[in-house]
């Protein structure tokens, strides 16, 4: 009997070329995300990670796979029955981005690491983005994405910790389906786990609509910004999924790791930041 090829076998020889995208930082997406957060549009430099509203991939409908992501191309690995999870990332700002800037993002595949987890073979990829304005690098980002081939999400047994005390910085959120839909639209994210409940629960095995990992990271990065701190670097890691209609808190304080705390005190994401003030 032939064994089903795993992720490590499927990506043998896979070496996608770097590519560049140029975009203008226009005011519309900034105003839209501010509205999602019930804020006035920020003036001055683009807040940390708000560049995710730009450089968006807009594939043709026939190029999408059954999960809503592009079926092939870019840095999508050639894995059968692919499942995608946003695992974390890093961002370093070398100069501020502002509305009106024209910026070029150069993207490359920085690392591909097959691993074996409790649920089978996994493929960890790291995509590196370099942002240049007028020929000068203004920021560097790395995103860690995990891919798995086969059945849907298998929840881990989570120890219920004592719920940590929220820090002095705090944002309380309950992500209803409307908020998730609006964020998907803002980031042109067609992954069905965020808006198609039957697909999310019956095909990928989740407990509900999944709250976007980038949305959690943006909320954590908002904490020091709203406290008047200028973020120059950050690193974050997704630790557990959150679902729609579950209340959660983004919290932390100066000199501590920031975290998203979900129901039962479970930590869904952590972030550490470097600030200049």
- Class by helix and strand content? alpha+beta
Mean pLDDT: 88
% residues in beta strands? 25-35%
Measured on Cα atoms, how large is the radius of gyration?
19 Å
Tell me the series of helices and strands, N- to C-terminal.
HEHEEEEEHHHEEEE
Question: Strand tally, please?
Answer: 10
* Helical segment count: 5
Q: What is the rounded distance between the termini? A: 62 Å
Helix content: 10-25%
* Coarse morphology: globular
Biggest sheet strand line-up: 1-3-4-5-2-7-10-9-8-6
Biggest sheet descriptor? 10 strands, antiparallel
- Give start-end ranges of low-pLDDT stretches: none
Task: Explain what this protein looks like in three dimensions.
The model has no long low-confidence stretch (mean pLDDT 88). The chain has a ten-stranded antiparallel β-sheet with strand order 1-3-4-5-2-7-10-9-8-6, with helices on one face. It has 277 residues and is α+β, with helices and mostly antiparallel strands. It is globular. The chain has helices at residues 7-10, 27-36, 177-187, 197-203, 213-226, and strands spanning 19-24, 82-93, 102-117, 120-133, 136-149, 169-174, 231-238, 247-252, 258-261, 267-275. Helix 2 packs antiparallel against helix 3 (177-187).
Note the main attributes of this structure.
globular, 277 residues, single chain, 10-stranded antiparallel beta sheet, 5 helices, alpha+beta
Question: What layout of secondary structure does this protein have?
Answer:
Blueprint: H1 7-10, E1 19-24, H2 27-36, E2 82-93, E3 102-117, E4 120-133, E5 136-149, E6 169-174, H3 177-187, H4 197-203, H5 213-226, E7 231-238, E8 247-252, E9 258-261, E10 267-275
Antiparallel strand pairs: 1-3, 2-5, 2-7, 3-4, 4-5, 6-8, 7-10, 8-9, 9-10
């Amino acid at each position: 009997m032939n064994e089903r090829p795993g992720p490590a076998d499927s990506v043998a020889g896979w070496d996608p070329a770097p590519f560049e995208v140029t975009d203008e930082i226009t005011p519309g997406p900034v105003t839209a995300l501010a509205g999602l957060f019930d804020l006035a549009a920020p003036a001055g430099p683009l807040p940390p990670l708000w560049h995710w509203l730009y450089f968006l991939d807009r594939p043709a409908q026939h190029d999408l796979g059954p999960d809503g992501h592009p079926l092939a191309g870019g840095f999508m690995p050639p894995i059968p029955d692919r499942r995608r999870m946003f695992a974390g990332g890093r961002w370093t700002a070398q100069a501020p981005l502002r509305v009106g800037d024209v910026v070029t993002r150069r993207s490359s595949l920085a690392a591909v690491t097959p691993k074996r987890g409790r649920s089978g073979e996994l493929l960890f990829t790291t995509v590196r983005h370099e942002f240049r304005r007028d020929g000068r690098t203004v920021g560097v980002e790395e995103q860690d994405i995990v891919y798995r081939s086969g059945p849907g999400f298998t929840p881990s047994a989570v120890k219920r910790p004592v719920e940590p005390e929220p820090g002095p910085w705090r944002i309380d959120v309950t992500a209803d389906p409307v908020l998730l839909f609006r964020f998907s639209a803002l980031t042109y994210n067609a992954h069905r786990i965020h808006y198609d409940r039957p697909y999310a629960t019956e095909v990928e095995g989740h407990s509900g609509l999944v709250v976007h990992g980038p949305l959690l990271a943006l909320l954590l990065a908002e904490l020091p910004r709203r406290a008047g701190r200028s973020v120059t670097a950050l690193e974050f890691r997704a630790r557990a999924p959150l679902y729609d209609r579950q209340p959660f808190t983004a919290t932390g304080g100066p000199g501590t790791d920031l975290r998203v705390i979900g129901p039962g005190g479970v930590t869904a994401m952590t972030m550490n930041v470097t600030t200049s003030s």
